[in-house]
Amino acid sequence: QVQFVESGGGLVQPGGSLRLSCAASGSITSIFTWGWYRQAPGKQRELVANIASSGSTNYVDSVKGRFTISRDNAKNTVYLQMNSLKPEDTAVYFCYGQIWVSGAPIRGYWGQGTQVTVSS
């Protein structure tokens, strides 16, 4: 019912930048909260940032001042601009959307994940 296309991951040197995007498609009536999560090897998945339909945002402390989450409601897309990247940011990044699909209850959907590697 909902398909996500994530893009923008890759290999970057410490101090570099990447921009992740996640586009949703399908019979979407509305997208409420968007979020970006990440999971490093051997660690639990953690919330990196989220953005409500109002535009209010939240960030995990470790990325405050470096990452910016934004959304384009017309395109059903969420972005994560990541600056001043550090090796500890290395992880698979997943987008998450709380979505109302036509004829179905509101529920969460996950993207397939995109690898971000920060290394010299």
Question: What is the strand and helix layout of this fold?
Answer:
Blueprint: E1 2-7, E2 10-12, E3 18-26, E4 28-39, E5 46-51, E6 57-59, E7 67-72, E8 77-82, E9 91-101, E10 107-110, E11 114-118
Parallel strand pairs: 2-11
Antiparallel strand pairs: 1-3, 3-8, 4-5, 4-9, 5-6, 7-8, 9-10, 9-11
Quickly describe the structure.
This protein has strands spanning 2-7, 10-12, 18-26, 28-39, 46-51, 57-59, 67-72, 77-82, 91-101, 107-110, 114-118. The protein has 120 residues and is an all-beta fold.
Q: Key features?
A:
120 residues, mainly beta, seven-stranded mixed sheet, four-stranded antiparallel sheet, 11 strands, 0% helix, 59% strand
Rg over CA atoms, rounded to whole Å, is 14 Å
Q: How many strands appear in the DSSP assignment?
A: 11
Cα(first) to Cα(last) distance is: 40 Å
Quaternary organisation of the protein chains: single chain
Per DSSP, what share of the residues sits in E-state strands of 2 or more residues? over 45%
User: pLDDT under 50 segments (min length 5)?
Assistant: none
Tally the helices: 0
Report on this structure.
The protein is mainly beta and 120 residues long. It contains no helices and eleven strands. The strands form two sheets. Strands 2, 4, 5, 6, 9, 10 and 11 form a seven-stranded mixed beta sheet that branches. 31% of the residues are buried.
